[in-house]
Specification:
single chain; alpha/beta; FAD/NAD(P)-binding domain; Polyamine Oxidase, Chain A, domain 2; Guanine Nucleotide Dissociation Inhibitor, domain 1; 8-stranded mixed β-sheet; 7-stranded mixed β-sheet; 19 helices; binds flavin-adenine dinucleotide
Length: 494
């Protein structure tokens, strides 16, 4: 797999081979192959079979109403995607981790019989700075923050300040924060510079921004960052910055047995022939009588439609009547982040024997963050590295062989010569995926939340908007996607 979906994955997800290896059953092949006449009318039509769309359809069907899900790809799961390692084992090339307070995705997984296991997090982390590799304990007072003595105090100060500011940002309406205009008039970079940080602390803020948003501090509004921090929690335990970047107890706490895509595979299986693959929605027409959703081959009629997925992609659909001006302009200003997920497979996780957790924080790209992404039983060993923001944009433009060389050079820098010759090499550039065009999530540059934010969820007639980017809680995450689907279903059902 390089820049596009592994055809094996698509076929297996569709026909159930991957499902079999991962313990799930198939989508009904007959319906997908067109042998059964496909339904062309439902109470609610859902665009997209990611976690938001499938959660919406599940909720609609649970109330006794009918739903049809139209998915552009030949697989379900959207930004979650399993890659087979053979012998029934998988790693994810898209979203994967789940953590405390991500209650809705956890509940959905439980309902579908999918268990979790802890992310491997034992042993020392590694900090690479100025050409020097330093092991350190990731369970220190500042969690995963490396032990740069000059940086730690500054970081503690700025993260505390950010958490305090974040609490004042209303999740349902960030533009109503007391300082919304001030905070939305500057990038996160401007804010960072105003705090006079030293080089070490500044680098770590850059790295955290890349890790969480897959963009650079210069790209993103301070108000968006504060909203996102607050959003990383539930009603009982509001979010904080440390939760976003932590493994144990944080957003990277656990993984799903069988891979996160299994949630969508099983949810789609339960919905059966209501889920139609390879049906890119091109046009949505609404009037007093109802709504008609056109793909290349179908015209599906309903009372309402829920459109999911990255906001930028929803702008590629033609709407009749045209979208309101504010929504149309919002879509011109809501970019996706840039990330390439790279995984090197070894017979064993050899770093564990050296007392290492597999987690790196580095000032040198293109891979500055790594994790141990081995299956639950630890075999084979999988090192996961992220190229994010600027690094992903540069790396993604290089030939495949050069991308691989540069990525493995990073793994060798951190874990030694044993990392040089993996048995397998997997990479996924989500910016190159036509039905995603970037990850992990859409973010807003300055001026967008304050002037266009009201259009993020506002229904347009019979059209309702869902997707991780529309969630108040765990915005941008699988949990947010599930919550957004549930909310849009409630809206659409009136
Ligand atoms: C590399 C990576 C790592 C991530 N890591 C994590 C993580 O560890 N934990 C976490 O919680 N989250 C993570 N995320 C984010 C998480 O995966 C997403 O927030 C979530 O899966 C989004 O779900 P969604 O349903 O909102 O959107 P999507 O998954 O994007 O689903 C939208 C669906 O709509 C389809 N679609 C789009 N346009 C059309 C059209 N016109 N017609 C028909 N269908 C259409 C798409 O094909 C897609 O299937 C990560 C994402 C990536 C890519």
């Amino acid at each position: 797999m390089t820049t596009k979906t592994d055809p094996q994955i698509s076929r297996r997800a569709l026909l159930g081979t991957a499902a079999a290896t991962a313990g799930a059953a198939a989508l009904p092949a007959a319906a997908q192959a067109g042998r059964t006449p496909q339904p062309t009318r439902a109470d609610v039509i859902v665009v997209g079979a990611g976690l938001a769309g499938l959660s919406a359809a599940r909720q609609i069907v649970a109330t006794g109403r009918s739903a049809i899900v139209l998915e552009a790809r030949d697989r379900v799961g959207g930004r979650t995607l399993n890659h087979s390692l053979g012998h029934g084992k998988v790693v994810e090339v898209g979203g994967q981790w789940v953590g405390p307070t991500q209650d809705e995705v956890a509940r959905l997984a439980r309902e579908l019989g999918i268990r979790t296991f802890k992310t491997y997090d034992r042993g020392n982390y590694l900090f690479y700075e100025n050409g020097k590799l330093t092991p350190y304990s990731g369970s220190g007072p500042l969690g995963p923050i490396p032990p740069d003595p000059t940086a730690v105090a500054q970081l503690a100060q700025i993260l505390g300040e950010l958490d305090t500011m974040a609490k004042t940002v209303p999740l349902a309406a960030p533009w109503k924060a007391p300082n919304a205009y001030d905070w939305d008039s500057q990038t996160f970079e401007t804010f960072k510079r105003s705090r006079g940080l030293g080089r070490g602390a500044s680098n770590l803020i850059d790295l955290a921004t890349e890790a969480v948003f897959a963009c650079e501090p210069r790209d993103i509004s301070l108000l968006h960052v504060l909203f996102y921090i607050h959003s990383a929690g539930n009603r009982r335990s509001p979010g904080n910055f440390e939760r976003l970047i932590s493994t144990g107890g944080g957003a990277q706490d656990s993984r799903f047995v069988g891979g996160s895509q299994l949630i969508s595979i099983r949810a789609a299986r339960a919905l059966g022939r209501r889920v139609m693959l390879s049906q890119p929605v091109r046009r949505i027409v609404q009037d007093r009588r109802g709504v008609t959703v056109y793909t290349d081959r179908l015209a599906v009629k309903g009372e309402a439609v829920i459109v999911t997925g990255p906001p930028a992609l929803t702008g590629l659909i033609r709407y009749e009547p045209e979208l309101p001006a504010l929504r149309a302009q919002l879509l011109q200003r809501f970019p996706q982040g840039s990330a390439i997920k790279i995984e090197a497979v070894y017979p064993r996780p050899f770093w564990r024997a050296h007392g290492l957790a597999g987690q790196v924080t580095s000032d040198t790209g293109p891979i500055k963050i790594t994790f141990d992404n081995s299956p639950p039983d630890g075999t084979p060993g999988v090192l996961l590295g992220f190229a994010e923001g600027h690094d992903a944009r540069v790396l993604g433009s290089l030939p495949a062989a050069e991308r691989r060389r540069r990525a493995l050079e990073c793994f060798v820098r951190y874990f030694g010569r044993q990392a040089a010759r993996p048995a397998g090499y997997i990479e996924m550039n989500w910016s190159a995926e036509p039905w995603t065009r970037g990850c992990y999530v859409g973010y807003t540059p300055p001026g967008v939340l304050t002037d266009f934010g009201t259009a993020i969820r506002a229904p347009f007639g019979r059209i309702h908007w869902a997707g991780a980017e529309t969630s108040e809680i765990w915005n941008g995450y699988m949990d947010g996607a599930v919550r957004s689907g549930q909310r849009a279903a409630r809206e659409a059902l009136g």
